Amino acid sequence: MSAESGRRSALRIALVYASFGAAWIFLSDTALGWLSRDPALITQIAMYKGWLYVLITASLLYSLLRVEFHIRRSAEEATRLSETKFRHIAQATSAAMIIFDNQQLLFANEGAERLTGYTREELLAKPLGSLLLPEHKPAAKNILTQLRTGGPAVHLEMEIRSKQGDVRWIDASVIAFEQGGRQTFLGTVFDVSQRKNSEQMIRLSLREKEVLLKEIHHRVKNNMQVISSLLHLQSDYAKDNYHKVLFDESQGRVKSMALIHEKLYQSENLASIDFLEYIRDLTDSLQRSTYGRQVTVSITGDDCRLGIDDAIPCGLIIHELFSNSLKHAFPVQEHGLIEISMQRLNDGWILTVRDNGVGIPDTIDPFNTKTLGLQLVITLAQQLGGKPSFKTGPGTTFSLEFAPVQQFSSAPDGILKG
Model-level pTM? Predict the structure, then answer.
């Protein structure tokens, strides 16, 4: 029983005793006045009244104390049973369970002994803060302050040093409660060192794979640049303009694929690229170095990130269509307009390439032609699982609706969606 509970019991007994005494004096004196006017008789009755008062109050005190002692025994028994149940539960669980007050341990189960390497007696003799690493002590102090001011239960992860000297990660839940009239804290602690070590190994492994993947993209880009350079050198030995154009077109296709690997190498997540940014770089490169015709290029659309399986065929399609527009769409016009857009449609994309040039001649069927460029466009569109369409007059409009192999968010990190 707590000190506060004992004070309440004593006050209750005192009040009952005082109330009975006051009532006895008043009622007994009034009754004597009614019963007799003889002073000798009144004195004799008063003596008997005193003895009767002593007997009655003794019996009353005995009854009150007996009730109070029964209440105390019941409370103590309930407390003992509760503590016994708690100790049995604490010893049965694999988790470490501790009770502490003002940084001093009051209770530690076998799980705490296994976790720290100390015996129960050693733990109870040590300040709790001595187990924590120095960098975690301010956080632990703040948490206890929060709990003392009525804060909710807290959950935290930190490192401790065992008796053997090794550092272990723990996952702890701490709540505050009152015991024996003072505020104490119950902590349930799990050893998560293995999980933390596994997470660290996974992070290191991912980092190694990221470095390796960056190196792969970098080397692929360099190899493609070598191929592009070889094609350029070989074109110098072409005997006629027809074969020179073939070499130049192949060189442009290789460059469009190399640019994707360069973007992946520069990307933070190595899995996807900002495709609108890629289109701007690709068209700028083609406009400057391939054909040199001055046209206005408009690139619009929603934020789009594509993985390598979608970006390469899309990039080649744009390369072919943009190159064809530069070469054939504006034979008379001094300046032309080429529009490229990527618009989201449900879980897919619509790629549109449009120019305001002369359009495709009626004698050419884009779906049944012997030109390699348009054959590539149709083949790559089918590879993407899309349905391409061409519209002419005025100008030419190509559109392709497709669902990407993988969905990526539009955030800078390009996280893969489920």
Answer: 0.55
